[in-house]
Design a protein that fits this description.
alpha+beta, about 25% strand, globular, about 350 residues, single chain, 8-stranded antiparallel beta barrel
């Protein structure tokens, strides 16, 4: 009998299919996988209810907006570290929270509505929290890769090609505005919500919800993302790399890094190092193997620091347990006022 907290081969194929075609119909997905659409839907319901897999959506990080993504490093008092991580994880602007093994206690990615909003939060609130000893902020200037591109690769090339026809486009034609806020927030808790559900949640007609959703998807303004508990992926170890590349090579290096299967997130940032990467690995020793490959393939890239993530209590709209399973939903809303809640 299958362990209720695991994914079998059919489940992994199902997840991979939804990663490629996040809003593909069960008819399409079932046909590609060779299973009945009702079986696909039933399996999906089971693994999502168990928190093993979830769907989310957010303003695409590479789309033209006024948002600012801040990589915030925090040193904490040991007695306050876990409580502060939980407080930050429940903020709708926080993308992810990482307990880091060295160099800093926490690394928090925050998608704020503007640089002044991020600055006020860090300088006037976070820095004065009794559990905080030091903060350091690095703002992303270019995002080369985000987790929406990461794949399990449980499908054959032919199956992936079939599903590619139902994948969201990668065009960047429009501009996201606060008029899209309610729809983004509704999608953030389940990127596969039906148009009827979205219409109800946003207080619009079904036809209006369908038109607004089509605009977000067709213009590449929203990332609709299938996430899976990291412990079940075969890539259970997460690490953070800081690196430097010459200014004239930075874009080329960033694009090359984005193609590597280990890279979950890669951005050019301000600060002492101009690149930060979040990577998933099969084992801790793969850190060194990845470094060797980077040195061979990208000689102008200089790795400055690397650290293992000891725990990740939040990833993309979900509070996670120690195995990376979803236990609580936090709607994503970068337009909201950014405040640290009271203790």
């Amino acid at each position: 009998m299958q362990d209720s907290s695991s994914l079998d081969e059919v489940d992994l194929s199902l997840v991979n299919a939804v990663q490629i075609a996040p809003r593909g119909s069960w008819q399409v997905i079932g046909s590609v996988l060779g299973i009945d659409p009702s079986t696909a839907a039933r399996r999906w319901q089971r693994i999502t209810e168990q928190g093993l897999v979830w769907m989310t959506a957010y303003a695409r990080l590479t789309a033209p907006t006024a948002f600012v993504l801040g990589c915030v490093e925090i040193d904490c008092r040991p007695s306050e570290r876990d409580r502060l991580a939980v407080l930050l994880a429940r903020l709708p602007q926080v993308v992810s929270v990482h307990h880091v093994g060295s160099g800093r206690d926490l690394l928090v990615l925050i998608n704020a509505r503007s640089l002044p909003a991020l600055s006020r939060f860090v300088l006037d609130e976070l820095s004065h929290h009794p559990g905080v000893r030091r903060t350091s902020v690095h703002t992303a200037t270019t995002i080369f890769s985000e987790g929406v591109q990461w794949r399990l690769n449980a499908l054959s090339p032919a199956q992936r090609a079939q599903l590619a026809a139902h994948a969201p486009p990668r065009a960047k034609q429009g501009v996201l505005t606060e008029k899209d806020r309610d729809l983004i927030v509704a999608l953030s808790t389940d990127g596969r919500r039906s148009v009827a559900e979205l219409a109800e949640l946003t207080g619009t007609s079904v036809s209006t919800a369908r038109r607004r959703l089509a605009k977000l998807v067709d213009q590449g303004l929203v990332s609709i993302r299938c996430e899976v508990a990291q412990s079940l992926t075969g890539w259970p170890v997460s690490a953070i790399f800081w690196a430097n590349a010459p200014a004239e090579d930075l874009s080329e290096v960033g694009r090359a890094l984005a193609k590597l299967p280990e890279i979950r997130f890669c951005a050019a940032v301000t600060g002492a190092h101009n690149l930060v990467m979040i990577v998933w690995l099969r084992a801790p020793e793969d850190c060194h193997r990845l470094e060797e490959r980077l040195a061979a393939q990208l000689p102008s890239l200089s790795l400055a620091e690397r650290a293992i993530t000891l725990r990740q209590p939040k990833r993309q709209s979900r509070i996670l347990d120690d195995l990376g399973r979803s236990t609580e939903t936090v709607p994503t809303d970068p337009w909201a006022e950014l405040h640290l809640p009271s203790a």
